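Re: the 109-residue chain
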Amino acid sequence: MRINRHLAALSAVLIGAGSLAGTAWPREGSRVVSYSCPGGEQFTVEYFDGHVRLRTGAGIFALTGEKTVDGEKYSDGHTLLSANGDQAALVRPGLPDSLACRPVGKTSL
């Protein structure tokens, strides 16, 4: 009986922690934008000054940025995110390019 109560309590703690882990908490001074692409790809970008945090189905990636004539570009040497106005493109090795992606839903400040 005692072991069952401990297992139930541990399960409740793990479920609660898992629920919080999937929640995006934007930091002060950041902007969060979710994008949807014509091919079905979806990803979220948290924009900071000079870098972004990219969240895809494959994980979370930190990309450093540079402003260009064509907009902003962010990369980690493998993944490339280009953002210009209300469009973004995501290019990754071994995966199809996600082009002409548009913001969806709300953005956070």
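Helices lie at 2-21.
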